[in-house]
Design a protein that fits this description.
By secondary structure, the chain is an alpha/beta fold. The protein has three domains: 204 residues, Rossmann fold (3-Layer(aba) Sandwich); 127 residues, Methionyl-trna Synthetase, domain 2 (Beta Complex), CATH 2.170.220; 148 residues, Orthogonal Bundle (Isoleucyl-tRNA Synthetase, Domain 1). The chain contains 20 helices and 16 strands. Helix 5 packs across helix 10, helix 13 crosses helix 15 and helix 14 packs antiparallel against helix 15.
Length: 570
């Protein structure tokens, strides 16, 4: 079996992630990591809190707390929320760990020694009113490419282009809105021009990159890569290790992407097997897969590969960056300032994690922006999770419980339609497997749902409740194969809805460990079923209204609390 590093984009812990952040990175990565483990692969699934940078520093100062305290408390909140969402990290760490700080400094110093970093003086924006330099994210203006009015100094979130603050039209301080001054300072630059040809080959020759990642990256390469400043004048961050760079910190975006390596080192160090990290990050046979939203494409497809090449340390090049489009909420982008959307702490107060996980994967924005609406969520929960999946499970197991003595029946005397059924559901399971392999998680789930629908049609056609009255062996043949299809369903759903899948496995009385290859093994006659109860329950429109009222009450409570970590609902 293979070795995989699975990395989800590191959330910036100035706030709690919302549902769009979750499906774009962490949840998608978790589904894939769980799938790979079921297949028997060796997986290290890592991420962590992005703790540095000016946004946290400025807000901490405004609140009268130390940035380290602010970031640490928010990290603890976010880590606990991911645990409650059943995210199966091998390690969820943060960028202020000793391991990460030392690794990042050593890594960049090696790039400097290799001749890929140079210095130059430049004019940078400075807010005379707030008396601070304005790193990229604290200067906003109009994007020179698409005209978006609130483009940041490092990137336009509308078109995804990487920017320089001087490119912004009508720039202004993001804190107070004042027009910035330009002051001379010295910064250290990564010379991307020296790496451009190798990066182009990496992108062009990579068959695994999704279309949006390849198109955006090739568009940037066509325009030509410019040197990028990798130091900043803010205080809260990793001190730059270069000679003469006292008082500078490493730009947060450049050091955070190295966390995928430092987190694997930290993981094995905690296990007392530190040397094993190289089997994943310095092994050409290993595969490295990132999960990000499309706004993170440049940093994972251009910047990180460039850093790995410039370091020259024989690191494993990323296999792919599984990048989603955006998830909208009721037709518009998520917005904290407008209180538009649902954040992951709020979501768990409304519905169990399996419900959210199932819905979000079912509508995962793989090829285009997708709109989350409560009407769509209600339809998925009631018609798909309950009528299709839950109803089929209940029909099969309840009938075995009541008419087959509560034990798995023998294969019986199958008719051609029974063999045809198991062939159809096996092919659907293999289809889901192919989609999982291709990181087409939505299509994988849809194939599994189609298995349940096929099962319901099969029961309706074969009517075992009638067969059992006249031909017990024929009824056994139907229920034996229906039970087998439930094995496939439980295994296939385990990455998406782990609570429900493992509950189903227990109800079926399966004693074997839930693994992917178990789906292909015929049932063992005579195994006793466990307690049979509904997997899911339906949600009414009235309940949705109540849930939304509860959401507003929760937000009123949050707004009354001073500190961001006090506003997190646990």
């Amino acid at each position: 079996m293979g070795r995989f590093v699975i990395g989800s984009a590191w959330p910036y812990v100035q706030t709690v992630p919302h549902l769009g952040n979750l499906i774009g990175s962490v949840l998608s990565a978790d589904v894939y990591a769980r799938y790979l483990r079921l297949r028997g692969h060796k997986v290290v699934f890592v991420s962590g809190s992005d703790m540095h940078g000016t946004p946290i520093e400025v807000e901490a100062i405004q609140l009268g707390v130390d940035p380290a305290e602010y970031a640490s408390k928010m990290h603890q909140m976010v880590a606990e929320l991911f645990r409650r969402w059943n995210i199966s990290f091998d390690l969820y760490t943060h960028t202020h760990s000793e391991t990460h700080i030392k690794f990042a400094q050593d890594f960049f110093l090696k790039i400097y020694e290799n001749g890929y970093i140079f210095t130059k003086e430049e004019e940078v924006p400075y807010c005379p009113r707030d008396k601070i330099y304005l790193p990229d994210r604290f200067i906003i203006g109009k994007c020179p490419y698409c005209g978006y009015e609130r483009a940041r100094g490092d990137q336009c979130e509308n078109c995804g282009r990487l920017l320089d603050p001087k490119q912004l039209v009508e720039p202004r301080c993001a804190i107070c809105g004042s027009k910035p001054e330009w002051r001379t300072t010295r910064h250290w630059y990564l010379d991307l021009r020296k790496l451009e040809d190798r990066i182009r080959r990496y992108v062009e020759e990579n068959p695994h990159l999704p279309q949006n990642a390849k198109e955006m990256s090739l568009g940037m390469l066509k325009e030509g890569l410019r040197p990028r400043a990798i130091t900043r004048d803010n205080r809260w961050g990793i001190p730059a290790p270069f000679p003469g760079a006292e008082g500078k910190t490493i730009y947060v975006w450049f050091e955070a992407v190295l966390g995928y390596i430092s987190a694997v080192i930290e993981h094995f160090r905690r296990l007392g097997r530190e040397e094993e990290w190289a089997q994943f990050w310095k092994n050409p046979e290993a595969r490295v897969v990132f999960f990000v939203g499309k706004d993170n494409i440049p940093f994972h497809v251009i910047i990180l590969p460039a850093l790995l090449l410039a370091n020259g340390g024989s690191y494993t090049m990323p296999t792919t960056t599984a990048s989603t489009e955006y998830l909208l909420y009721e037709g518009d982008k998520f917005s904290k300032s407008r209180r538009w959307g649902i954040w992951i702490d709020e979501a768990l107060q409304l519905l169990p994690p399996d419900y959210w996980r199932f819905v979000l994967v079912y509508i995962r924005p793989e090829n285009r922006d997708t709109n989350f609406t409560w009407s769509v969520a209600l339809e998925i929960i009631n018609k798909v999770m309950n009528d299709d999946v839950g109803n089929y499970v209940n029909r099969v197991l309840s009938f075995i419980k009541s008419r087959m003595g509560g034990v798995v029946p023998p294969p019986g005397r199958p008719a051609p339609e029974d063999e045809n059924f198991i062939a159809r559901v096996t092919e659907l399971f293999k289809k889901a497997e192919r989609h999982y392999d291709a990181i087409e998680l939505k299509d994988a789930l849809h194939a599994l749902v189609e298995m349940a629908r096929e099962g319901n049609r099969y029961l309706n056609t074969r009517a075992p409740w009638d067969l059992v009255k006249t031909d017990v062996e024929a009824a056994q043949a139907v229920l034996h194969r229906a039970y087998w299809s439930l094995k496939m369903l439980a295994v296939g759903l385990a990455p998406v809805a782990p609570d429900g899948a493992y509950q189903l496995w227990r109800m079926m009385g399966e004693s074997a460990e839930l693994r992917w290859d178990e789906a292909y093994k015929p049932p063992k006659p005579g195994a006793a079923l466990g307690e049979v109860r509904p997997l899911f329950r339906k949600i009414t429109e009235a309940e949705v209204k109540t849930l939304l009222q509860k959401l507003e009450e929760l937000r009123s409570q949050k707004a009354a609390r001073k500190f961001p970590w006090e506003q997190v609902i646990l």
